[in-house]
Specification:
The protein is 0% helix and 52% strand. By secondary structure, it is mainly beta. The radius of gyration is 14 Å and the shape is globular. The termini are far apart.
Length: 119
Amino acid sequence: QVQLVESGGGLVQAGGSLRLSCAASGRTFSSYAMGWFRQAPGKEREFVAGISWGGGSTYYAYYADSVKGRFTISRDNGKNTVYLQMNSLKPEDTAVYYCKAIRGWREYWGQGTQVTVSS
């Protein structure tokens, strides 16, 4: 069982930045691929960014086209934490952002953190 707790959301003006954090419980964090998803009001949850599992220093990161070049996902296995650095934020980035851990058929979700970007 993995428990995920997101933090770092808030209200920011367009063009601003936020860094989201997702802290995971347990000793096997490095064995999970991690991802960020978001859900805006009235819309389905969508993929934002993902990062591969592993205990080394090299990871594969991948992004939705809508955030490529603006958002950066990273992980610190020593802190059991995955981050999402969000720059050049736009009003359309407003959503609840969720963290997800995946290993094989196991997947876990956090409770989400609200990000609101004002124009």
